[in-house]
Amino acid sequence: MSTTERQSAPVVPLWTPAVIPDGAPSKIDPPEGEDLITVNFGPNHPSTHGVLRLIVTLDGEVVVGLDADIGYVHTGFEKNFEQKTYWKGIPYSPRMDYLAFFANELAYVGAVEELIEIEVPERAQWIRTLFAELNRIHSHLIFLGTSGVELGAISLFFYCLRERDTVLDLFEMVTGVRMHDRYPQFGGVAEDLPKGFYAEAKKFVNEMPQRIDEYLDLVAGNAVWEDRYRGIGVIDADTAIAMGLSGPNLRASGVPYDLRRAQPYLAYDKLDFDVITSDRGDAYDRLMCRTREMYESVRIIDQCLEGMPSGPVLADDRKHVLPPRHELHTSMESLIHHFKLVTEGFRVKPAQIYYPVESPRGEFGCFLVSDGGTKPWRTHFRAPSFVSLQSTAMMAVNRYVADLIVVVASLDGVMGEADR
Amino acid sequence: MNAEELAAAVEGAVPGAVQAHEDGLDMPTLTIAREHLVDVCRLLRDAHGKNFLSAVSAVDFLGYGDEVAGYFGTESGRDINRTGSWGTPETVAPPAKRFAVVYHLAHVGDGPPERVRLQVRVDDGESVPSVVPVWPTADWHEREQFDLMGIVFDGHPNLRRLIMPADWDGHPLRKDYPIGGEPVQFTDAV
């Protein structure tokens, strides 16, 4: 049996920065040629964190063309919001990005709060900050764990899920559920922190830095991670900004842009934390940025626990805030307010608002248009996964198909949020 | 920079571009004539540092202000939820310049983002120039709005449906698109 000489497509060297292709930036057309095969990468593939379908043209083992197809978990969130009163929209929002559920709630609740101009008590802001950071740790742990699974390293995944469980226990202790908590309300949070939360959270804060050290021991010096992640999917700062990357994906390229610092919301302007950046913009830096961000989140949680002001957790505004449950049995006014809020809802002045928050994945924004009625006229969510997945093609082309998995993983897309 | 100053600066460089301006609750908002959109975007990116396009959204103003959230029926059918609590069964006359395409711009770098909102008002069937040459990230944003709202972006290099299936009928986020039920597929094959 004779072997034929075959010229394969050239593989670009490591550290070659991605270049925005001509034409559609998210799609790279394969060259003319024989011996090319087109493969469906997905929609079900373990490394896609959901159902992302990539139509990949391969020359041997090298990706020469790529087009992404999303929408497999489109559930019409934005249309649904239009049918619900503002109150009933809150439980919808965390179901988009199911790993960064709290950030989604904050964006929606924050946008409505800006529209109704409600004063949120100081303590509620601090509690929200605390949980936003717990949620960031939760999301980054899943990212870190699954990034190991994609390389065939299962053990890190178990360690990460162990700590994730602790985070979810804290959520459960306060909100009653582990995810999708509907904890932020217009005007504050649903309930105050329960007794015993401080001790549990403090225990987590004391333990977590050592756990992150352990992960870094596993990842940072590990030859497999170094070889597979170094120099892959490199994107420089200007290209990253042009492609709309945000969050850790952008900071890994050296842009110190973090909405918690650039446009402070909640209690972030009173807290001391560093914005983690790297300068090489490859998959490894994106991984490390997220991992090291967990240290900062732990710092923020610690400051929240120590510096939490006392006071109410819900605004005293009966036209927008549900009255306390116990009053319904004794107070006619409370019952009327409760009934009106739950059935008809409150009216919001006609206006437009864009409220961005720094979700674990980047800038998550809620654009809300009101027509003066009791339901949003239009909600649109700026989903960071949706934006960052556009860069897959330019990062993966002319590299091995194995690197494609690393590229997709390092962008940390959550399809529930990309498709909405 | 407030909306008035920004409008004056834009108007100075691209005469006839700004149709209206307001300060807005959160950021200055300029309404731009659609034929000047790309010029204005280039100007804001190069001279005003708005290097980051956060999002492209589209809003359907059919029935805006009538306080019927949800969906207005159409004469053409596809109207499974014709009556009920979801909306009115009547049709409403589309307002002039029914759609708004909204661009949220920001400055990414050191310091605050200094956001600006641009909006372009169009009628059904009117197209909007694509801003992909200015901000490549607009690619999927524009495809999403084309898909879900039916806004055509002129000069987009790959304007296809993104989220709904390629053979989908209609644009789900329009106000006259039914929110319940969908036509039974494959009936002609029985």
Outline the structure in words.
The complex is a heterodimer of chains A (420) and B (190). Chain A is of the alpha+beta class and 420 residues long. Chain A has 16 helices and eight strands. Chain A has helices spanning 77-83, 86-89, 101-116, 122-150, 155-175, 197-220, 223-229, 237-242, 248-251, 259-262, 283-307, 332-343, 384-388, 392-396, 401-411, 415-419, and strands at residues 36-41, 53-59, 62-69, 184-185, 188-189, 351-359, 362-370, 378-382. In chain A, helix 11 runs parallel beside helix 15. The longest helix of chain A has 29 residues, at 122-150. Chain B has 190 residues and is of the alpha/beta class. Chain B is built from three helices and seven strands; from the N terminus they run H-E-E-H-E-E-E-E-H-E. Chain B has helices at 3-13, 37-47, 138-149; strands spanning 18-22, 29-32, 52-60, 99-106, 116-122, 127-129, 152-154. The relative contact order of chain B is 0.18. The model of chain B is unreliable at 74-87 (pLDDT under 50). Chains A and B meet through helix 1, strand 6, strand 7 and strand 8 of A and strand 3 and helix 3 of B.
